[in-house]
Each structure stands twice: as structure tokens, then as C-alpha cells.
Automatic annotation (TrEMBL):
Top-level taxonomic group: Bacteria
Protein species of origin: Zhenpiania hominis
The protein's name in its UniProt record: Uncharacterized protein
Amino acid sequence: MRNGDNKKIVAISKIQFKGKRRIDWHAVEIYLKKYIGTCYVVESNKNRIHIGKDFPDEYANSEYTASLKGTLAKAKANAAQNLPQLIQIAEKTQYTPNYKEKHKLDAKYGWYRYNTRFALPVYNEKGNMERMNIFSAQMLIRYAANGKLYLYDIVNIKKETSTPPQQSLYGIKPISY
């Protein structure tokens, strides 16, 4: 799916992680474990992003995750469903050296931030989808001592105020790869 600016958006067709008050982050962490050991290629620069064994815990239990409430918490939890596609459409934005002692090995060569975008359906009280909410986010990638890039977390999730394309309102179709 693409927006009016022709930027790629990953359409997430199902709300798997629901919660009126809070998200079950333990369930999200368990779900993410299926990605451990996999690797995905970023289309824009052909970088290979690996999913390490520390990713599920960081994603579900980071300080950033703990600070999320409401729609943004639900967005982060459900973005986990389409992690490969989020990596594939990502675009690198910036590099930052590692300054923290605790990451001197796992992010020895620093950090990259990649921008990505996704859409979640919004259903009315009858269970019919009425629109898509579009979110932008940054994927935090650590450049490890072994020379590989690892997905560390998804942060800075923001709901966009733009109107989604009309054709996507009823026929949600993720980008094909």
C-alpha cells in the first residue's frame, strides 16, 4: 500500500493484540520469538537486518514500551505481526555512535535508525472496518562487534494525520514481495 506521497506503508490487516486498558506484552514477546535467527533485507540499501535473541525482550519491555499508552501501545504491539515487511520497506535516516558502556559489545560500532510506516484498521461497533490509521516509526538497529546489523527496538511511533488512500479502505492488501 502507498500513501499520497507514494511512500510504502505496510498494511496490517488484523488486530491480534487487543486491550482496553493494557496490552499483554508477555504475549507479544512470545509471538516475537518466532523471528529469532531470521534475517531480512532492506530494499532501499540491501542491508541485512538480523533478529537476535535479545530482540523480543527489548521490544516488549523497553523503557519506551513502558511509556506507551492507548493507541500507540496497540500500534507497537500489532506492528510485531508484520516485522519482515516493516524491515523491507525501511529507509535509513541516521547513524549515531555508541556512547553507553552497557552496549560496548552488542552495539560496538553504533546505531542506525530507519524510518518505516504501517497502517492498522479501525473497526466500528458493528465490527466493520471504517478506516485505516497510519503510523510512522523508527527502527533502532545496532551495529554489533561481529559486523552484523540487529533489530533492537521500534521507537518513536507517531500516528499520522494524513488521510489514507481511498482504495485501501476496504481491500487491505499488504505490499507483495
